Amino acid sequence: MNPSLKHSRKISPIALAIVFPFAILLFGQAADFDGRPALILKNDKVELTVLTRGAMMVNLVLRDDSEKLSPFWNAERAQRATGSAPSRPSASLGHFLCLDGFGAPSAEESAAGIPFHGEANRQQFEPLQESHNGASTLILRTRLPVVQEAITRTLTQIDGENVVYVNTEVENLVAIDHPISWAEHATTGPPFLTPGQTVIDMPAAKCRVRPEKAGSTGKLAYGKDFVWPLAPLTKGGSVDLTTIPTNETSLDLATCQIDPARTYGYVTVLRPDKHLIFGYVFRREHYPWLMSWMNYSGDARAARGTEFSSQPFDISRQEAVAMNPLFDTPTFRWLPAKSKIESRFLMFYTKVPDDFSKIDDVTLDSGKLTIVDHSGKRMTLAASKGL
């Protein structure tokens, strides 16, 4: 039950002590995930692999799944599975934390040392662990040296549940209030992401296609507003964003306001043919936006980002603050001086009945997670910790 270091290729104790000095004491022998130091958190239902670099969640599998199919984006593994070598090493995998920064920083921030998507996903996290009363917890801590913030990321599993609970606390170490840029860069890739098979659903309201961005193809009409899930096409007409197109290469981004009437937002990634569903439930007050990054490359590098965040797009904090509010919803969140703020979400992965094809709702109430299919059928998962 306790988190343990993944064992495949060994890392020497000396190297381990340099990277994260407390790991030998807490976890014993260390190893890696595709050449990267990693930890495993597991119960009797699901197994999650987390990198110490960036606290990235990079592999999630059902314990009883013989195929061991993970929904997370891993272009390197997907390319190797097709018999080709990865085109370049991926700096980011699966689900990673964008903090304090989402997208490109301003010119001044870049000159001061703020990287794309912020510092958090580049930092080594110090791992700690707890286990008691049927629950296993992995605690990861780091400090962001440029923005002077401390991060504590806590992941918890409970026996018998197909759920991982994630709580993140950010502490401002300086005596100045400032807008924080915070996104959970959740990304699905092949083979879970399959054209014509994968279905994405969320309780979205008003949406907007991202203004022109370098690299995007412009299949979607830049800067245009729409109502989920039908996005406007540059050539006219619209496209349903819940589905993954076949025989197409395109790169576009669009953000959606999570329904303001809801306490909890959600996003689901369903594979009806595999009878599997992966998804998130999150507090809307913490993450009022979800940006879809639709990188349909037509090969193993394809990705669909379902990035829930404090701001609409992957833009600098100056730009995010300047557009406030959008659709009567805040476009940034404050991090007060010498104070802490937190966010909470849960991640779930489970099998679904054969006739599940499109998700109409996901609710969290009284320790139960209920998933409702378009047919009206529903299934319930235990989620005793709640949010």
Description of the molecule:
With 387 residues, the protein is mainly beta. Helix content is 8%, strand content 42%. The protein has five helices and 28 strands. The longest helix has 7 residues, at 13-19. The two termini are 22 Å apart. Mean pLDDT is 90; it is low at 1-31.
Main features:
single chain, Beta-galactosidase, Chain A, domain 5, 28 strands, 42% strand, globular, disordered N terminus
Quickly give the CATH architecture. Answer: Distorted Sandwich
Low-confidence spans? 1-31
Number of domains: 1
Task: Report the span from N to C terminus.
Answer: 22 Å
Strand content: 35-45%
Gyration radius, in Å: 20 Å
Quaternary assembly:
single chain
Q: Kindly state the percentage of residues in helix.
A: under 10%
Regarding CATH, which class?
Mainly Beta
- Give the integer mean of the pLDDT values: 90
Counting DSSP H or I runs of 4 or more residues, the number of helices is 5
Shape: globular
Alpha-beta content class: mainly beta
**CATH fold name, please?**
Beta-galactosidase, Chain A, domain 5
For the report, how would you describe the main beta sheet? 8 strands, antiparallel
The tally of strands reads 28
Quick structural overview:
The chain has 387 residues and is mainly beta.
